[in-house]
Design a protein that fits this description.
This protein is mostly helical. The chain has twelve helices and no strands.
Length: about 375
């Protein structure tokens, strides 16, 4: 397979847009009410040790991606079996992302249009970009990240006069248990989903530091999610916020500067489309890379279109309706994703450290 390389700046841009993804529009879990912003901060801290493990794997296996690591540590049979599980996870996550975009289109923007139509447009655009290569995706992500951050800054600036700071109080009115529950939910969605990015580690340039990329990602994306969370809370209040499927769109829709600057939510929707597009594209890229590695294909590009079309088709019926989408995203997903995000990478890291230690001991013994 052809070697594609992306510099650190492009890798961070991809990672940030991937992490922000659909959470920038769906908001965060609302069990903790007006303390949900604290859950964002706790989730950012909680995910750091996991990211350091991911970065350590990159140091142990330079130039290798997740699938290479699994095969190298667990052998061809078990390694390929676990690789198939990650191919499924990337494929499934990409379908979930497309479904959120389709539900938004059907519920808010294009109410008379079947949700398959907008999903098909976004999915085929992702197929085109992934077939062009991750280098193209990286260059696009750097520009799109600047645009997304600029949009959020403008919306926040225009929303300052609408913020009602009494929504902060009383703090922890529901106790610590909902805060912990929301923290675990935010840990898995969206922060720990960056495990998918390990599938693109082989594309990092030799000078790139996975530690710098992953920690820079959680800092930037965490700040963006925190700002959006605070804006939604202070504009809508915890009671209204808990009843919204897309709180960012609703809060942006309340901004009205005089009688000449309205419909700001359209700009927010554009940012949502951008982050959704990048996240779905990364999932498609990693699923294609994994399939090519497992079945020893010459190029991942030969399966991108097929996987992309299957992903779009699967997204059309992965959830029954928008209520099921929200419930599973906030309550079930964190249990389902935990093995992929924590257990398997932890076992992989421990086994890799043992293997490296044994290799060093053999070298020392041979020199004596």
């Amino acid at each position: 397979m052809n070697k594609e390389m992306i510099p650190t700046g492009h890798a961070i841009s991809i990672a940030v847009l991937f992490t922000v993804g659909t959470s920038i529009f769906m908001g965060v879990p609302e069990e903790s009410g007006n303390s949900n912003w604290i859950s964002v901060l706790l989730a950012m801290v909680l995910v750091v040790p996991l990211l350091l493990i991911y970065a350590r794997l990159h140091l142990i296996f330079p130039g290798k991606d997740l699938f290479d690591m699994l095969i190298a540590v667990f052998g061809k049979v078990i390694g390929r079996f676990i690789s198939c599980l990650y191919i499924w996870y990337a494929f499934h996550l990409g379908a979930l992302v497309l479904n959120v975009f389709g539900e938004f289109s059907k519920t808010v923007a294009l109410t008379e249009t079947p949700m398959l139509a907008p999903m098909l447009c976004l999915g085929l655009l992702g197929v085109w970009v992934v077939k062009s290569g991750i280098e193209v995706l990286g260059r696009s992500a750097k520009l799109l990240l600047l645009f997304t951050v600029a949009v959020e800054i403008v919306i926040l600036t225009l929303a300052i006069s609408k913020l009602e700071y009494h929504h902060f109080l009383p703090l922890f009115d529901k106790g610590w248990h909902p805060v912990v529950s929301d923290t675990l939910g935010l840990f898995s969605f969206p922060f720990a989903e960056i495990v998918i990015f390990l599938g693109a580690f082989s594309s990092l340039s030799g000078k790139s530091s996975a530690k710098k990329i992953l920690l820079g990602n959680v800092l930037i994306s965490g700040v963006v999610i925190l700002i959006v969370t605070l804006r939604n809370l202070l504009m809508l209040g915890p009671e209204v916020l808990s009843g919204q499927y897309f709180p960012s769109y609703v809060s942006a829709g309340r901004i009205n500067v005089g009688d000449f600057l309205t419909r700001i939510e359209a700009s927010s929707a554009v940012a949502f489309v951008i982050t959704t597009f990048i996240k779905a594209s990364v999932c498609l890229y990693v699923a294609s890379i994994g399939l090519a590695k497992v079945f020893k294909l010459k190029s991942y590009r030969s399966v991108v279109l097929q996987i992309g079309l299957l992903m779009i088709y699967f997204a059309d019926f992965v959830y029954k309706d928008i209520m099921e989408m929200q419930y599973i995203s906030y309550h079930i997903y964190k249990i389902y994703a935990f093995p992929f995000q924590v257990i398997i990478p932890l076992v992989l890291w421990i086994c890799a450290e043992i293997k490296v230690s044994k290799s060093k001991n053999k070298q020392v013994a041979s020199q004596q």
